[in-house]
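tmp note - Putative transposase
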Amino acid sequence: MPRQARVIVPGLPHHIVQRGHNKQPVFIENRDFQYYLDNLQEWKHTLGLEVFSYCLMTNHVHLVVKATDELTAIPQLMKRLAGRQTRFVNKIEKRTGSLWEGRYKISPIDTDHYLLSCCRYVELNPVKAGMVDAAEHYPWSSYAARIGLADCDGLDEPPTMAALGTDSQSRRERYQAFVSDGAFSEQDRQIRAAIARNKLTSGHRFVDEVERRIGLRIETRAPGRPRK
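out:
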């Protein structure tokens, strides 16, 4: 089966997943996690990107990053993060070789309908993996900072957060309720399927809109089957 091409759409948030080589651990000690987050903060500022959500699991990372008009910015970010982490770990462990899988996965997100669900999906990873019983107890995700329990200078507020309340406290409380109600849903299935295949996290109408914007066919249609 041919490998699905990666698509980056200017101005859209993107769900990104990068896994350790052969699913082996990438982060073992606290310093490993912190080093990655320090580099994420540095390079997102350098490249002018916004980070809406993140979660560092032991053998993979999830990021939700908004693309700029400079389409090389996200690839540069991922190259810098992967390269620095590899050199850091290899130096400490006196080893050589790749730390990561060769290609990260990326899925442009329909901001209005899926962005907050993607952030929730990312931040609930440790809960669904049985690592913690509540998202705020996991120190290596953006959730605690999002609801005001931790500081994070490198975290940006998703535009759809504004619809949750007129002030920061009410937005935090409503987002917390939204995440707490985050049992497995149909949107979770769509998010997982989209990132696995480098497709848009969206409905058909939004796919058509993005294809018109970028002038490329990015989703495969069944022959002769009309779009709804």
